[in-house]
């Protein structure tokens, strides 16, 4: 659950005004101590998560899709040394669906 910006500012204002520790402010408002600590640095809530891909390089993945268009996620995961879910998320970023071409595997 995300607390409203007004509530966050109120917690920080009371903490600053009364000279409370993070723990005492958290107890007073019924929130976690870590939450109060994080909000002192950035009281505004995050609207999106801008995290780049860390383990899977997109160019080799796109080449792998071209070379092996009917490969399963677990096969790609073995080649890239990661999990199936990671491959799925990377394919989503490349806007590649997981549907298979039924006729490509028949060979005729």
Q: What is this structure, in a nutshell?
A:
The protein has helices at 5-18, 22-29, 33-41, 58-67, 73-80, 84-93. By secondary structure, the protein is an all-alpha fold.
Order of helices and strands: HHHHHH
Cα-atom radius of gyration: 24 Å
So what's the overall shape?
A: rod-shaped
The helix content is 40-55%
Describe the sheet with the most strands: none
Terminal Cα span: 54 Å
Please work out how many helical segments DSSP would assign.
6
Stretches where pLDDT is under 50 for at least 5 consecutive residues are: none
What does this structure look like?
With 108 residues, the protein is mainly α. Among the domains are: 5-41; 58-93. It has six helices and no strands. It is rod-shaped, with a radius of gyration of 24 Å. The chain starts with a helix and ends in a 15-residue tail after the last helix.
Q: Any descriptors?
A:
single chain, 108 residues, mainly alpha, 6 helices, rod-shaped
Task: Break the fold down into its secondary structure elements and pairings.
Blueprint: H1 5-18, H2 22-29, H3 33-41, H4 58-67, H5 73-80, H6 84-93
Helix pairs in contact: 1-2, 2-3, 5-6
